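Researcher: Next sequence.
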Amino acid sequence: MKTNALGRTDLAVTEICLGTMTWGQQNTEAEAHAQIDYALDAGVNFMDTAEMYPIPGRAETQGLTETYIGTWFKSRGQRDRWVLASKIAGGRNQPWIRGGAPATGSSVREALEGSLRRLQTDYVDLYQIHWPSRPHYHFDQGWDFHPETEDGAQVLETLHGLLTELKTLVDEGKIRHVGVSNESAWGIMQYLRLAEQHGLPRLVSVQNEYGLLKRQFDHDLAELAHYENVGLLAYSALAAGALTGKYLDGVLPQGSRGAISGGVWRNNAHSEPVIRKYLTLAQRHDVDIAQLGLAFCLTKPFMTSVIIGATTMDQLKTNIAAAEITLSAELLADIEALHRDHPRPF
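Model: Next structure:
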């Protein structure tokens, strides 16, 4: 499988990354282990998790995903074959994680060491800040995004505090590299500036949502990724499954994340007509819709890796095989024409 450099580091990660957020909620420990085994045999070397997983987040399941990864490491003894990424949570209606407090320099050590215990490893290769400790436009919050309400000096102080503590943990060997998630171009540039000014860890990646239905990264963030070598780790490339059409007309299949959550915000009156158009496009070109969505992401020059998620082995096999799909020039042109008519369907 093709690999890409993780930022300006010497780490090479596969263009498909094994996502894990269903483990502990929709998937058992045995199923999680089977997914890791299969992905490794298929050539995948990159796995992403987080202290808050599984999703939907609940106090009684929090941390189970990392725990399942840790038991796999203990039973298989192949930690060195994986580039492992995890994340620190930061509030957002999760009082069971450090009282719901945002991520700050004072909370990083506690969060990381908890993850390391569950993962049964001495280090993570990539440690990410799951979302900003300030208002942001991710998770479809762009309609009510008002950065002018924030104190810029306080925001920068928080970023500096996070990087300072992360440097200590890098120096201790508990973290190899640092990244962010659900960040903006401005936020990433501030992290880069602070790192250069104060000798702090430089960001190597940003994990944001990207796919056929959500392509904001194509603009300022694509330019930033190109010039600063902060590549994208794309999550929800299939719009949390909505792109496949399984949630059309309000259907919530038993066992799906939509059924567990009680709804799917990515499947709505605005997105359903566009999803149907992509389904028709995939059928016309005789391409599986999931593989179309993932293979499209892999065509992007700013893409470091696409994070896949699966609840069944068939889904996992389909998603990993997307790396072998080459989209024709005609199909790519049809995608761009469709996107031109429907640039923001959520």
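Model: The longest helix spans residues 152-171. The chain has one domain: 3-243+292-327.
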